[in-house]
Amino acid sequence: TEHYCSCRETYYRDNYVAPNGSDALVFELSEDESYYRVVGFNPAKIGKNLVIPADYMGIEVKEIYFNAFFECETIQTVTLTSNIQWIRSTAFTYCKNLTKVIFVGTEDQWKAIEKGYQSGVEGLAFELYVEKK
Question: pTM for the whole thing?
Answer without folding.
Answer: 0.81
